Amino acid sequence: MGVIHPRRDEMRKLLEAGGISDIDIARQVGADRRTVYRLRRKVGIPGYRELADTCLHGHPYPENLGHRPNGWRYCKGCHRDHKKRYKAAAAFDEAAVERAAAGDPPERLSPREREAAVLRLGSHLSPEDIAERVRCTTRTVWRIRARNRDQLATAA
User: Fold this and answer.
1) pTM of the model
2) Across the strands, what pairs with 60?
3) DSSP 8-state secondary structure symbol assigned to residue 122
4) Measured between alpha carbons, how far apart are the two ends of the chain, in Å?
């Protein structure tokens, strides 16, 4: 016989009331959220997000509702927005590369700017010196050099 959770009836009442997330119920009752989730599935009560007509960001369902091969639901609108946000290339600042090559890099360099600064310093400095100037790790310098070996060979 399995162990009965001492607050199972209280959790069940909150689940049946609806509109409360598993995490909020777990906090109120003092149980683990997985315990609340298991009870929800056992009783057959759908989650509050399963009944919603929009995603958390407001994209309407069902036209934006997609299913992954493993059965998980996802919002196609949020997926599109995420792809747009990260697909756009970061703006390349030539002045930041110049400053980094001179030894006074700005607070934050984009990966493309960091790579350009390392390549501009070329192979006449040690990786430790380049890493110190550009404010990155020596491993980053080695990785950039390995990726651009052909370009460094023609510059030397």
Assistant:
1) 0.44
2) 54
3) T
4) 76
